[in-house]
């Protein structure tokens, strides 16, 4: 039984939840959701005040140790020649494979944004619809310039990456784990 829900707890939906009054899906099977206030689990619409008495029919609690330590419950290990041991890398993202050129270009984009709007302004959050509009606008401008043999007037591709990053941050806020789409174990 899940009767105690505390702010910061994470839950995985085990059955789609449709609201009777609106007929809209508010939680999707397989997705993780965050509690942003005691007694509530934030839903797909970003409503933080959806109260639950017993949530066990629709949710399972995400293991607190795995959640807090970002570790798998059972971890395979590898042993080095020196005898030192470390977790296996099989299910870890290849962050070190992000191209340095891409990181630098994107870093310049962030620097320009910090000058214009203030450092870390993007962390305050923006709605996904606005990000999709901006993403599509920058992609269209890049394609138009490319197709017409024109120089790019700004780094539209870095702007696309920026907008995608904000959309992904919104997914994170909605409780979608970084490995959600890749079938890895936490």
Q: Could you walk me through the main structural features you see in this protein, from its secondary elements to its overall organization?
A:
- With 186 residues, this protein is α+β, with helices and mostly antiparallel strands.
- The protein has two domains: 1-92; 95-177.
- Helix content is 33%, strand content 11%.
- The chain is built from four helices and seven strands.
- The protein has a three-stranded antiparallel β-sheet with strand order 4-1-5, with no helix packed on it. A two-stranded antiparallel ribbon has the order 2-3. The chain has a two-stranded antiparallel ribbon with strand order 6-7.
- The model is unreliable at 65-73 (pLDDT under 50).
List segments where confidence is low: pLDDT < 50 over at least 5 consecutive residues.
65-73
pLDDT averaged residue by residue: 84
Strand content: 5-15%
- Could you give the order of the helices and strands? EEEEEHEEHHH
Number of strands: 7
Q: Looking across the biggest beta sheet, what order are the strands in?
A: 4-1-5
- Biggest sheet overview: 3 strands, antiparallel
Which outline best applies? globular
Q: Round the Cα radius of gyration to an integer and report it.
A: 21 Å
Helix content: 25-40%
Distance between the termini: 23 Å
User: Structural class of the helices, strands and pairings?
Assistant: alpha+beta
Number of domains: 2
Q: How many helices?
A: 4
What tags apply to this protein structure?
186 residues; alpha+beta; 2 domains; 3-stranded antiparallel sheet; two-stranded antiparallel ribbon; globular
